[in-house]
Design a protein that fits this description.
By secondary structure, the chain is an alpha+beta fold. A 4-stranded mixed sheet has the order 1-2-3-4, sandwiched between helices. β2 and β3 form a beta hairpin. The termini are far apart.
Length: 171
């Protein structure tokens, strides 16, 4: 008789544990499915330019243009600059630049680069300049791909992510 009570109690405890485990597993699976769906929704919103919590460069990254005139003006009129590529998303320009003689990017150089970009397009309100090798390499690859006629699909979202990393305090 004593063994029967032990078996009943053990069965009840194990049954409760099984029910709790199943409930937690379902809740965890639901949470994982929700998290998996979130990046897809954010990617969709970013492509549409309507991501409500996005930084300015994410909202404007529906279309990216290569500003060759601005890049040429920078290289020819800012003596410290060896090379530059300029990408424009609506009213924001991103300059990927290499400076001569391992020179550091100073506020003065950055301001002069911004002036040259704005001189080529009066609609540009913000100019972000980077000499970060990763940023410069990615922008150069994008420009080369576009000029070679390769599809640049997927670059818009990738560029928004890259810009967020390179310019984290952009407003």
């Amino acid at each position: 008789m004593n063994h029967l009570k032990v078996w009943v109690r053990a069965s009840v405890v194990l049954g409760c544990a099984a029910v709790l485990a199943a409930g937690c597993t379902n809740r965890q699976q639901a949470r994982m499915q929700q998290q998996a769906a979130q990046p897809q929704q954010q990617a969709h919103h970013a492509q549409q330019g309507t991501n409500p919590g996005a930084q300015p460069y994410q909202n404007t990254a529906r279309k990216i243009d290569i500003a060759d005139a601005a890049a040429s003006k920078i290289v020819s009129e800012v003596p410290e600059v060896h090379s530059a590529n300029v990408l424009v998303t609506e009213r924001t320009a991103y300059v990927a630049s290499m400076l001569k003689n391992n020179q550091a990017l100073t506020q003065d150089i950055e301001n002069r680069i911004g002036e040259k970009v704005r001189a080529t397009d009066a609609n540009i309100q913000r100019v972000y300049v980077s000499v970060n090798p990763d940023f410069v390499g990615r922008v150069n690859t994008y420009v080369e791909d576009v000029r070679a006629g390769r599809p640049a699909a997927g670059f818009v979202q990738g560029f928004a992510d890259l810009a967020r990393r390179v310019f984290p305090t952009a407003r």
